[in-house]
Amino acid sequence: MAYTSPPPSRSTLSNKAHRYRILLNLRSLLDRYLSWPLPPRPSVEIAIPSKVSKTPGSIQLYFFTAPSKPLCPRKQTKKLPPRPVLINFHGGGFSIGHARDDSRWAGTVLKAYPDAVIVSVNYRLAPERPFPVPLEDGVDTILWLWQEAQKYNFDKTRFTLSGASAGGNLALAIPFRLHEELQKKRWASLRGEIALAGLVVFYPSTDWTRTRIERDATNPIAPQKSMISPSLFKFLDDSYLLPAGLPKRPGTERVDMSHPYLSPGLAPESLLQATYPPSVAIYTCGWDQLLVEGNTFRERLGGFVEEGKMVGVGGFVVEDVVHGFDKKPSFWKGNEARDRMYDDAVNHLKLMWKIE
């Protein structure tokens, strides 16, 4: 990345992150406790160690289950069918936000599929933990859940990923990093008996080769309607995209913003074919600077369906809404656009999980 002035220090960014996190947490609280119908609360919290990342630490996982279907039943008189698992990654530009922010999405899934288990990942945040730590925390989570599948009665072949905004980018990029990790000898016992069943993403970033100004130019209404200021965008980018840790072009020290771990929409076809599940759904927002790149990637994947290389690609443009519209507190008014998007996404999960 090129800076016209020296980049801000990590301590300066951390101080800003603390303030932004307080504000976003307040908005999330209003949505979770003062907007009807109230979403569910996590039923279980488990901290797991990070192993894939070179940066040691722990990852907090929040499990959402239907009240009648707890994660660990006290009494089990008969063996139950293995449960499908949705692993979710929250938004917030990789620097703010929390796993509980997507409680309403989790509740929508559980209402349709009470047997499901939703795992919302509180991956470690930049600027304290910039790229690639959030990506690697996602890989660690999937591997841990696969290893614990028998204990918790998870169906290893019905793991789906979801995410919004930055979390959508993670959901789209994690399969690449997961594939790389699974090639190592220590995971030989998992290969052959596991698979991702699908991806459901909401307004993701898919092409980091474009600057924020270039992204706005692809959809001129976006800067007029956006709730995100240019200064916040700059903070988020400075926090996550620490130049020293970004991928480089082979044989050079030049940062490669087209790398699939950053820009999944630009991944080569061979990598997509090797790592992606058969079904994907991508939802975009009409008043979003990420509209065009998200639509372009959905259309590209749709071409694989026509060629018989994927089973289904869904999703649509939610017109007349801004990035993150579904996270705004609705209080007593509800949010019809959000409900329509979530309901359609839930229908795609039925295909991914092969539910009759």
UniProtKB/TrEMBL annotation:
<dbReference type="GO" id="GO:0072330">
    <property type="term" value="P:monocarboxylic acid biosynthetic process"/>
</dbReference>
<dbReference type="Pfam" id="PF07859">
    <property type="entry name" value="Abhydrolase_3"/>
</dbReference>
<dbReference type="GO" id="GO:0016787">
    <property type="term" value="F:hydrolase activity"/>
</dbReference>
<dbReference type="GO" id="GO:0017000">
    <property type="term" value="P:antibiotic biosynthetic process"/>
</dbReference>
<protein>
    <recommendedName>
        <fullName>Alpha/beta hydrolase fold-3 domain-containing protein</fullName>
    </recommendedName>
</protein>
<dbReference type="InterPro" id="IPR050300">
    <property type="entry name" value="GDXG_lipolytic_enzyme"/>
</dbReference>
<dbReference type="InterPro" id="IPR029058">
    <property type="entry name" value="AB_hydrolase_fold"/>
</dbReference>
<dbReference type="InterPro" id="IPR013094">
    <property type="entry name" value="AB_hydrolase_3"/>
</dbReference>
<feature type="domain" description="Alpha/beta hydrolase fold-3">
    <location>
        <begin position="86"/>
        <end position="325"/>
    </location>
</feature>
<keyword id="KW-0378">Hydrolase</keyword>
